[in-house]
Amino acid sequence: MIENLKTILFALILAFFQAFILQHVEFTSWLRPMPYLILLFTLPLNTNKFVVLGIAFVLGTFIDLLSGNFGIHSGSMVVFTFVKNSVDKRFVDIDSLALQGETFVTRTSKGYFYYLYYSISLIFVHHLMFFSLDYFEFRSTLRILGLTIGSSLFTFLFIELIHLIYKKR
């Protein structure tokens, strides 16, 4: 019960941080970090997949409501979660993670290169969906790809920074 409350509080903090701070900070026109994805990366892999989809939809909708978007965050979060569930089912051995005392993929559980590929690939899927919904026109393809690549790498670095700060506490 306490763990669920911590997760809800963490989700609210991430949503407010995204909507009220990061949405208004201009890093460059090609970088838009979305560190709220860390919540879905850190949910235990044995969590019911429909619950995870529900969490993704509610969190995305909450961010959309706070930031004035109309379903862009929630749509991309649901696609991200659906793809992540498929990747986890196919490529992640939950039993071996459990033997290592882990409940989700980390740098130490699967190795840094696997973690890097896993994280950036899933972030890329989210950002590609997000920017495709945001611009939604064929002539913006290069802009969508540029934003997706730059923002994916920046989001990954932001998530790593959050991990470092959290581990020091």
Summarize the structure.
This protein has 169 residues and is mainly alpha-helical.
Structure description:
The mean pLDDT is 87. It is globular and about 50 Å long. It has one domain (2-168). The longest helix is centred in the last third of the chain and has 28 residues, at 141-168. The protein has helices at 2-20, 38-42, 49-67, 72-91, 94-99, 107-110, 112-135, 141-168. The chain has 8 helices and no strands. With 169 residues, it is mainly alpha-helical. The relative contact order is 0.13. Helix 1 (2-20) packs parallel to helix 3.
Total domain units = 1
Q: Helix fraction? A: over 70%
Structural class: mainly alpha
Whole-number average pLDDT?
87
**Secondary-structure element sequence?**
HHHHHHHH
Low-pLDDT stretches are none
User: Beta-strand percentage?
Assistant: under 5%
Number of helices: 8
Between the first and last Cα atoms, what is the distance in angstroms?
22 Å
Largest sheet: none
The coarse silhouette is: globular
Quaternary arrangement of the chains shown? Answer: single chain
What is the radius of gyration computed over CA atoms, rounded to a whole number of angstroms?
16 Å
Work out the number of β strands: 0
